[in-house]
Amino acid sequence: MPTVIHKTRKELEDQRAKLLSEVSMSYDELKSRAAVYSLSMNELMIWHTIEGIDYLLAGES
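Request: output the structure for the sequence above.
Response:
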């Protein structure tokens, strides 16, 4: 049975900010480095998580 996690918009925004601080990069820098395959495995996992968060936040508008 799948697990469903419920988070508020604020919780998602806070998680996104925390992830960016963990890699010490701005969103634009992380996105640019992802585009040229210049991320470590950890940074890439964080990038994919941020993409998912952005998808959820965009769908909430």
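The chain has a mean pLDDT of 93.
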